[in-house]
Amino acid sequence: MGKHIGKSDPAGMSISKDAIGERLKSVRLLAGMNQRDFAARLKTSGAYISCVELGHSMPGGRFLRSLHHEFDVNVNWLLTGQEPSLPPRYGLHVRSLVSDYGGASQAGRSLIMAVASYLVGQGA
Question: CA 29, CA 23: separation in Å to the nearest integer?
Fold first, then answer.
């Protein structure tokens, strides 16, 4: 059973630290970054990224703002897994890529990673 922080989102669903960590890891992998480089871009440590990805820590407000600003990640989606109600600022829709990545074969995941890396390189 996943770790829970003991709170519920507005819809009454438990917010799982494990699920948040998995979504954060998916964002990082889709950006084509290791934990150290991802952490540097977000002005934090690799150890902190590791703790959040493993479900040992909840991301704080400053981190969430940086993640939204740097990678256009919808904070509500990261915390609850619910679809964002507003479109992303850029052409890259992180949620749909993460969803596709999770259900893809190994070859499909490689293709999604290549597309995401290309889009990030293009400033999408």
Answer: 10
Burial letters 65-90, b for 16+ CB under 10 A, else e: ebbeeebbbbeebbbbbeebeeebee
Secondary element (H or E) of residue 4? strand 4-8
Cβ neighbourhood burial of 94 (10 Å; 0-12, 13-18, 19+): buried
Identify the CA nearest to 74 among candidates 59, 82, 84: 84
Query: For residue range 71-124, what is the model confidence (pLDDT) as tens digits?
Result: 888 888 898 888 655 445 544 556 667 767 777 788 887 877 777 776 666 554
DSSP letter string, 34-93: -HHHHHHHTTS-HHHHHHHHTTSSPPPHHHHHHHHHHH---HHHHHH-PPPSS--SSS--
In angstroms, the CA 107 to CA 94 distance is 19
Per DSSP, 123 falls in state T
Is this structure's pTM higher than 0.85? no
